[in-house]
Write a sequence for this structure.
DNA sequence: CCCTGATTCGC
DNA sequence: GCGAATCAGG
């Protein structure tokens, strides 16, 4: 099987793509590979995003044709490694622990062993459940997240709404001492990674 | 090494 | 049409 690419998925692809998410990021959120994302994006015709490379000018055929080099200045949409939109999704708040984004990848979910002690990781709620993202997000999370310097944020960083969308925002309530989330969301956040039926419908 | 996106080509 | 494989730059 290839992938259904229903109107829905295509719509999401378009949306995420437009939001400036990286192909890999989109792929994760759509549970497909980045290749699939790129390929589809091409076929869909959308794709004016900054490419890190410029594949050699087409073999043969007008090699010295209108090769205007054209270093077409890219919009400031470029940040650095990691997804630009992802940062945009979780800005300003300087959360002690990066809130997982919405939608859980059906795969690539290297089930983070249920730690004996609650650790900020798996917000698993019903709808708009910000699910834990393994892969490199995990790596990042495993790093000095402890960060002795920055204490917890002054506001709950539980994500509400879809990152990137206008309505997206963080809870903002007063978080528990030492926790990035408020009392209510902490309960959701520190679930033991059990039934987190992905909503990735 | 990691990441990124782009293209090719068998399916 | 699809996307893994491959390529190529950072």
């Amino acid at each position: 099987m290839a992938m259904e690419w229903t109107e829905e998925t295509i719509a999401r692809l378009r949306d995420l793509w437009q939001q400036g998410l990286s192909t890999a990021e989109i792929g994760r959120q759509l549970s497909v590979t980045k290749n699939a994302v790129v390929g589809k994006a091409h076929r869909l015709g959308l794709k004016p995003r900054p490419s890190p490379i410029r594949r050699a000018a087409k073999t043969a055929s007008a090699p010295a044709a209108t090769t205007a080099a054209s270093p077409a200045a890219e919009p400031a949409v470029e940040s650095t490694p990691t997804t630009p939109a992802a940062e945009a999704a979780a800005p300003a708040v300087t959360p002690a622990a990066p809130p997982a984004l919405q939608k859980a990848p059906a795969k690539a979910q290297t089930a983070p062993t249920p730690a004996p002690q609650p650790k900020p990781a798996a917000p698993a709620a019903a709808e708009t459940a910000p699910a834990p993202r393994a892969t490199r997000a995990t790596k990042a999370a495993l790093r000095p997240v402890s960060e002795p310097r920055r204490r917890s944020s002054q506001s709950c960083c539980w994500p509400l709404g879809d990152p990137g969308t206008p309505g997206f925002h963080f809870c903002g309530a007063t978080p528990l001492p030492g926790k990035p989330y408020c009392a209510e969301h902490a309960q959701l956040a520190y679930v033991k990674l059990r039934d987190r039926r992905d909503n990735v419908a």
About this structure: The radius of gyration of chain A is 19 Å. Residues 2, 22-24, 34, 38-39, 41-42, 47, 49-55, 81-82, 136 of chain A lie near DNA strand B (CB under 10 Å from a C1'). Helices of chain A lie at 7-18, 23-30, 34-44, 84-89, 135-142, 183-189.
